[in-house]
Amino acid sequence: MTAAPPPTERAAVVCKVGAARPPHTVSNHDLTARLDTTDEWIRSRTGITQRHVAGADLSTTDLAVRAAAQALADGEPVTVEALVVATTTPDRCCPATAPAVATRLGLTGIPAYDLAAGCTGFLYALATAAGLIATGTARTALVVGADRLATLPDPEDRTTVPLFGDGAGAVVLRRGSADEAGALGPAVLGSDGTGADLIQALRPGTLHMDGSDVFRHAVDRMTTASRQAATAMGWELTDVDRLAPHQANSRITAFVARQLGIPDGRQLGNVGEVGNTGAASIPLLLADATADGRLKPGHRTLLTAFGAGLTWGAVTFTWPDLPLTRPTGRSRT
Questions:
Q1: Catalytic residue among 15, 52, 119, 217
Q2: For 251-284, what is each residue's pLDDT tens digit?
């Protein structure tokens, strides 16, 4: 048997991507029929025109399974040896979502666990899964971000209801070398519990968010983390071909990109059609951009996010040559 390479030679490499979203969409005009708001007000402040919303028959587990299954279906078969699910909206407080997802995918017996870090959850999960590969615990890992954030706001709150949608995204990591496309660079992660009250929900329907403070923290933390991640990778910010930020709203994305000096043509976004999907946001965006050609092999890519906790993070890598995918539930028009 060939000995495994020492930990210092191992890198986690992105090799597959997939996504899923509920088929039902809620447009801004649908919201204006029951809330004291307008399409123009929502668009000008968030850039959102619609969001996908799951019905009672579509759980967080269901979305996670669909996104993961799509990722696994593309390209050469991969034997998954670990699963991490990032979510703020598990179907139950206990047990965790991940073991059920693993079993439904036919992966019973592998390590599977949940991770909660708000909208930064996917980056935290990506980093922990990369750690499993680096230590030799697993040769491959499936990382899923899945959330039903549309359940969190008060249904009558005109300021928060328009922001959120439901969805899931997934990537598969494999053990590889640090010099190949898809190899993750050092992750920059952070938190600050003194801001815990800025975004909180005690239960579905009770979301509170201090919009102005959240905006300020999001821009500052994502900008700083992005600079640190680029430096850790040995990149200048001018080296970045694609910025793939958490899709909270278009104004936050624009401010972060402006602070980093990344021009419009290098920014990826899909918030207009999906809203803020929490931990699903970044992998769903990566799947969308791969499918429509905005993200191409060789693009030096910077991921960054900010979320409740407060939490934030960033990571860099060069986008690999992956099979083109079209996220489940996405219109072809």
A1: 119
A2: 999 999 999 999 999 999 999 999 999 999 999 9
Asked if residue 310 has a cis previous peptide bond (ω within 30° of 0), the answer is yes
Amino acid at 56: A
What is the identity of the amino acid at 206?
A: T
Answer whether 225's CB lies under 8 Å from 190's CB: yes
Which entry of 52, 217, 246, 299 is annotated as an active-site residue? 246
Residue of 28, 249, 270, 276 with catalytic role: 276
**217 has catalytic annotation:** no
CA angle 273, 275, 278 (to 5 degrees): 135
Q: Is 250 helix (H, G, I), strand (E, B) or coil?
A: helix
246 labelled catalytic: yes
Task: Identify whether 93 is a catalytic site residue.
Answer: no
Of the candidates 166, 169, 180, the one whose C-alpha atom is nearest the C-alpha of residue 143 is 169
Query: Can you tell me the distance from the alpha carbon of 167 to that of 145, in angstroms, rounded to the nearest whole number?
Result: 8
Cα(210)–Cα(123) distance, rounded to whole angstroms? 23
> 238: how many CB neighbours lie within 10 A of its CB?
9
H-run or E-run covering 143 = strand 140-148
- How many Å apart are CA 96 and CA 119, to the nearest integer? 18
Q: Cα(49)–Cα(70) distance, rounded to whole angstroms?
A: 26
pLDDT tens-digit profile of 99-128? 999 999 999 999 999 999 999 999 999 999
Q: What is the CA radius of gyration of the chain?
A: 18
Task: Determine the residue type at 49.
Answer: T
